[in-house]
Amino acid sequence: MPSFRSPKAQSEYAVSQKVALGQGRHEHRDDGKIHSVGTARGYEQALKGVAEYMQEHRLGDLRSVTVEIARQYLADRAAIVAQKTLDIDRQAIQMHLGERLEVVKSEKETHLSTRSYTPVQVERIVSAQSERNSLATQIAHNAGLRAHELLTIRPVDERHASTHREWSTERFTGREGERYTVEGKGGLIREVILSRELTTRLEATRLSEPRQVTDREVNYIQHYDIGGGKAWSQSFSAASARELGFSNGAHGLRHSYAQERMEELQQRGMNYQEAKGIVAQEVGHFDKDTTEAYLR
Hints:
Elements: H1 7-16, H2 37-56, H3 67-77, H4 83-97, H5 119-127, H6 131-143, E1 154-155, E2 178-183, E3 189-194, H7 196-203, E4 206-215, E5 218-224, H8 229-244, H9 252-267, H10 272-282
Antiparallel strand pairs: 1-2, 2-3, 4-5
Helix pairs in contact: 1-2, 2-4, 3-4, 5-6, 5-8, 6-9, 9-10
């Protein structure tokens, strides 16, 4: 691909290399080519967005897109676009890379209104759960974790954060504790911080031998005997319904974390956009604007 400065020019060139108009779409559906003007137009728009993302985050141009970056881009987009748009994005990147990517489910519909819990509400939910699940709930709230990420917790000296992105030194400003890593969407490994009290309790559950667990048809290697995944999420929702009379789902804890951290950082003198950028990294997003969904 020639060196184009414009994301639009990059996307147009990338699509032009794959266009094969005039050939029957059904007879050539698996040839990796584009046989429709409408599809070409949609893919150009999708790849323009990818090129802008690469440029904004100083990751290079469309030639530098990897499967790892593509997965993280789609994971971030899942919070802000509908399923149809997300599918077009994925298909365009697949064409560009020549590699199949996993289908990603849009989360936009579930982020239209606030889902956060207050600290008091979290305490009430914790009191209604088993010990394994209550500890998981407190950890998820303290570190802003997804359900499956609870299954992937490792000490920071056992696994390093992903190196394909630039991490801010301002992460966790104002918080003290011990650092761990978790594996999030798109395989992104990021650091999180747990309070010392939760660290002590977590380490007391350390397994003598790691074990494989399967959650939503995905295998994970778990190092601590705590709740996580779908089973923990269901426990959380049931406890919330019993104690509060409603449930915003376990994902609501990430909303709580984001909102609490925004308030903490702004109280320390950080402006809104700076704070949002820090929180975005702490919850595992590439794009800080994706975090806006958590701040409603």
